[in-house]
Amino acid sequence: MLSFIAQRVLKGVIVLLAIVVLNFFLIRLAPGDPAVVMAGEAGASDQIFVNQLREKFGLDKPLPEQLFLYVKGVVTLDLGFSFRQQAPVAKLIGERLPATLLLTLTAFAISLALGILFGTFAARFAGTFLDTAITVFALIFYAMPIFWVALMGILLFSVTMDWLPSFGYETVGANLTGFAHAVDVAKHLIMPAMTLGLFFMATYTRMTRASMLEVKRLDFVKTARAKGLSDAVIQRRHVLRNALLPVVTLAGVHSGTLIGGAVITETVFAWPGIGRLMYDALLQRDYNLLLGVFVICSAMVLIFNLITDLVYRLVDPRIEFAS
Amino acid sequence: MPKRVLLGLLLACGLTAPTLAQEPKTGGVINAVIQPEPPGLMLAMVQNGPVQMVSGNIFEGLLRYSPKLEPQPELAESWSVSEDAKTYTFKLRKGVTWHDGKPFTAADVLFSIEMLKQTHARARNNLAQVDKVEAPDDYTVVFTLKQPFGPFLGIFEVGSMPMVPKHLYEGTDWKTNPYNNAPVGTGPFMFREWQKGSFIRLVKNPNYHEKGKPYLDEIYWQIIPDAAARSVAYETGKVDVLPGGSVENFDVPRLSKLKDTCVTGAGWEFFSPLAWLWLNNRQGPLADKRVRQAVMYAIDRDFAKDVIWNGLGKVATGPSASTIKYYTDDVKKYPYDPAKAKALLKEAGYKGEKIRLLPLAYGETWQRWGEAVKQNLQDVGINIETIATDVAGGNQKIGDWDYDIAFTYLYQYGDPALGVGRNYVSSAIAKGQMFNNVEGYSNPEIDKLFADGAVATPDSKRKEIYEKAQKILVEDVPVAWMLELQFPTITRCKVKNLITTGIGVNDGFKDAWLDK
């Protein structure tokens, strides 16, 4: 298993470097020059100013040299300097990463737990009213854009009912500590996490339901039933466990999509995570920061995929780690 | 009268709720919205709206400006001008200290000017007429100009020329100086905390040089990226101040009706944002003056004001906003007249060539305005294709002259020599930049008028020159002027005296207080 992990990590590093190079060129393909953006915001743009900014950003150097310097930096764990924000990229991302991890992991947990639960119920009671109700709700949440769910949530739970805060990570100025602070953050987390989670929950619900119905028809389930095992044991130990494989695969794939969804959720709810940092960096063509966020997100996706592979092994002992 | 028009009229008059002269009360915290999050807080290094809005509390300039743009004391307590209008002597306030306790002196002014010449494009342009700056003593600064420069006393507000602490910046790498993100100024509020993506916290400067001020204890600038969420934050009582432009215009009438809400359009006199359409004079049908005039006649600007901007603002008459010096409305008029537009297009021989329209990606209001203009132009037979980009992509296209018609709005900075001439003189045609003469208009007479206007004395002479320039430009239509924009500031009525100068919320909250 260790050699499997080592191999995957090595492959991951190679993939990451390829992503860095690809993103480096991709970003520069987009029209818009960071120096012009900043000069524009300053309300003045003479050539001296634009040239100064280009020199500051390192944009006056030939592209291959810029790439070489950037890759060299990444290899030595230096993600560069954001001249727009006047701070090292690693520091900027480090400040925001915990909030994004909290949001995405909570959303992920909510979506997976509720998705599997509802999917199991729908499959167990297939063809009944409960199944139809769950399927319809799943479809609604799948079909509704995240920003719309977010705005409706704000309208209902913040403006009308005044139950939950509409924006932010914590109550600004309250200076809460300890448990009170944790409760405050949790209150702020509910809406963004649910908004982000509901979309994915819908997918897992439908996937679990379909997968369970398929597995239920297989011979080994009949064998289990013939052995006289109780329905609950068959559902939990045989059907669900086998049905989870595609769900786990999907969850692994979703790790990247989740971060994409976080961009919208973090923007609507003013959640101070890297999704928003990425969005702002994109609009402002803050190349170093944008590349830095891409590197971190890619690394996160690779880690999630590695975890997915390991979870496969736990869910299905038939899968061997290739050496 | 439509409600939105009424709102516009009320805003034009100042306030929608009465204010009475009251004795200021001390204490309290204000929560204000800042959008987008500033890239930094060091005003000498980064200049954009949000940076100035926050840093205008931390830093100060030598002067401030009244709503009528008259200079007022700030770090300079008095000033005098020589007979030949070439020497300006500023007497600095004594007893002013930086937030770290070090005294503010003329040496800081000299250092700031040298630094700004390298880091602040607008300051560099403004200082181009300065021959030398001297400090005969610790509290006197003398500017000697190469020639008289009419708007010189108008270049000292905090955003145009912030004072920088010499002792913290001299001999350092300015770009990476740690004080860029924890700025030290002389202003009424001190930087305390910045939780990136969440808020910026400023606290009262107990040693501020104006005794008794500021009145507030703290300001929290809340960072809320989504416009709808900013409206909700105000509605649910989480923020007290929505500076101009922080919510979509269609939300302004609704928010204005909320209980204990006051709205004012004041505080933008110095900037006087003017919206227009860049018309690429270099190529295609728009190279013909008649086609450009047709564009002016084809666009229903009253509709844009009343419907898209909810009655806020004023239809522009030409290159100067009515709030800045030497404005005249005695110019050729372009009422909404599609028939005349069609006739001009026919006369110019326009045969339906495709014209690319670049809207401004600043949110919903601007998108809708782009759609309305497209409709207006199509109605008179102009073949319009809308090009969708984000702000950075749009800026690049405009800077590269890769457009036919493009939306923009620019600040005027109180004087035609500072914020108007740059868009029409041929010396300001430079590819790769976006806030100069990107339309490619070239008229030697206009070049001469703006060159003369900047250095002419007395004031009556400048007036004569700029009025003539306005008449010529409006006849030539190098760009299509749309609206004098108004960005209303929405506050709880308990927030008093928030806006006292021509720079409004960008000038710091030192006069503001809470009627608790």
Describe the protein's architecture and organization.
The complex is a heterodimer of chains A (323) and B (516). By secondary structure, chain A is mostly helical. Chain A is 77% helix and 1% strand. Chain A has a two-stranded antiparallel ribbon with strand order 1-2. In chain A, helix 9 packs across helix 10 (231-268). The model of chain A has no long low-confidence stretch (mean pLDDT 86). In chain B, helix 8 packs antiparallel against helix 10 (338-348) and helix 14 packs antiparallel against helix 15. The two termini of chain B are 36 Å apart. Classes of the chains: A mainly alpha (323), B alpha+beta (516). At the A-B interface, helix 2, helix 3, helix 5, helix 7 and helix 11 of A face helix 4, strand 10, helix 6 and helix 12 of B.
Quote the distance from N terminus to C terminus of chain B.
36 Å
Q: Nearest-angstrom radius of gyration of chain A? A: 24 Å
> Helicity of chain A, in percent?
over 70%
Question: Structural class given helices, strands, pairing of chain A?
Answer: mainly alpha
Q: Rough shape of chain A?
A: globular
On the 0-100 scale, what is the average pLDDT of chain A? 86
The radius of gyration computed from the alpha-carbon positions of chain B, rounded to a whole number of angstroms, is: 23 Å
Helical coverage of chain B, percent range: 25-40%
Beta strands of chain A, count: 2
Distance between the termini of chain A: 8 Å
The two chains with the largest interface, and their residue counts, are: A-B, 60 and 60 residues
Low-confidence stretches of chain B: 1-19
Helices and strands, with pairings:
The complex is a heterodimer of chains A (323) and B (516).
Chain A: H1 2-29, H2 34-41, H3 47-57, H4 63-75, E1 81-82, E2 87-88, H5 89-124, H6 129-143, H7 146-160, H8 178-216, H9 219-226, H10 231-268, H11 274-283, H12 287-315
Antiparallel strand pairs in A: 1-2
Helix pairs in contact in A: 1-12, 2-3, 5-6, 5-8, 5-10, 5-12, 6-8, 7-8, 7-10, 8-10, 9-10, 10-11, 10-12, 11-12
Chain B: H1 3-13, E1 29-34, H2 49-55, E2 63-65, E3 71-73, E4 76-81, E5 87-92, H3 106-119, H4 121-126, E6 130-137, E7 140-145, H5 166-169, E8 189-195, E9 199-204, E10 218-223, H6 227-235, E11 241-242, H7 252-256, E12 261-264, E13 274-279, H8 289-298, H9 301-308, E14 314-315, H10 338-348, E15 354-358, H11 364-379, E16 383-386, H12 391-399, E17 405-410, H13 416-419, H14 444-455, H15 459-476, E18 479-484, E19 489-492, E20 495-496, E21 513-514
Parallel strand pairs in B: 1-10, 15-16, 15-17
Antiparallel strand pairs in B: 2-3, 4-5, 5-7, 6-7, 8-9, 9-10, 11-19, 12-19, 13-17, 13-18, 14-18, 20-21
